[in-house]
């Protein structure tokens, strides 16, 4: 790291094989374990099977952490995502493909290819790393709230063009300053910033479509492996719908997840209301970046570097 700069290490290392192997084993164990649900509760309602699936995945996660901590080996979250997508693709092409139309197979394979392309792009693209050594490194103060940073209030009043600068936040996980920092994504092991926000929303849309189509076609078929992967797809759809709606909302009002959670840490979001008889004013919320829905979306589609 040079100054505020952050250079992502993209070189291959043999040590990275072990986390990938652990992730692959974890995916196989979790996916095959889910076949116990349709085997043991085939006559139960879908909602009940879904609840059992969540409980089983939680149990597997806890049990898998024990040997990982004892042996001091850890899985890779990005590899876990990749192998889950790969497993679902294998199930479709080996088990389901003969029961659906050729067009459906082509569409699902195309969506899987787009998912992997988006996955690679999010992993290795620039989220908005601040690499200018003359940036406001001495003005940025690290907070104790999820590893972000903000400018002192006197700098806000003193600097006319302070708003773009203030959207540079520090991520403890990446040990880097990110412009337009939204959140650190555990699934990709990377930050989502200004230069990845559009890509993140697009990837979520493709992933949601891929899982929804899989759930729809698997719900018309039988077989333990088909039903178990259908339950997994439904779980993915449920939480990704909420996540997708949240990011669409943030895009429309031009606010980051980190800013929405920690707005009291950032002076530009604070609106002071003097209260009669009180020594301290009441602090309200104001979003200085909201320029209207169309202007906000246009800003996301054409981020400034």
Automatic annotation (TrEMBL):
Keywords, A to Z? Acyltransferase, Membrane, Transferase, Transmembrane, Transmembrane helix
Pfam families xref list? DHHC (PF01529)
Subcellular location, principal: membrane
Reaction(s) catalysed by this chain's protein:
L-cysteinyl-[protein] + hexadecanoyl-CoA = S-hexadecanoyl-L-cysteinyl-[protein] + CoA
Work out whether the entry's keyword set contains Acetylation. Answer: no
Subcellular localization: Membrane
Tell me which Gene Ontology terms the entry assigns under biological process: protein targeting to membrane
Enzyme Commission identifier(s) = 2.3.1.225
Which top class of enzyme applies to this chain?
Answer: transferase
Q: Which InterPro entries match?
A: Palmitoyltrfase_DHHC, PFA4/ZDH16/20/ERF2-like
Task: Report domain Palmitoyltransferase DHHC positions.
Answer: 153-263
Any idea which GO molecular function terms this record carries? protein-cysteine S-palmitoyltransferase activity
This entry carries the following GO cellular component terms, namely:
endoplasmic reticulum; Golgi apparatus; membrane
**Regions that span the bilayer:** 12-34, 46-66, 73-92, 98-119, 225-249
The record gives the membrane topology as: Multi-pass membrane protein
Q: Which family does it belong to?
A: Belongs to the DHHC palmitoyltransferase family.
**Recorded domain comment:** The DHHC domain is required for palmitoyltransferase activity.
Q: What PANTHER family does the entry give?
A: ZDHHC-TYPE PALMITOYLTRANSFERASE 3-RELATED, ZINC FINGER DHHC DOMAIN CONTAINING PROTEIN
**Full protein name:** S-acyltransferase
Native source species = Papaver somniferum
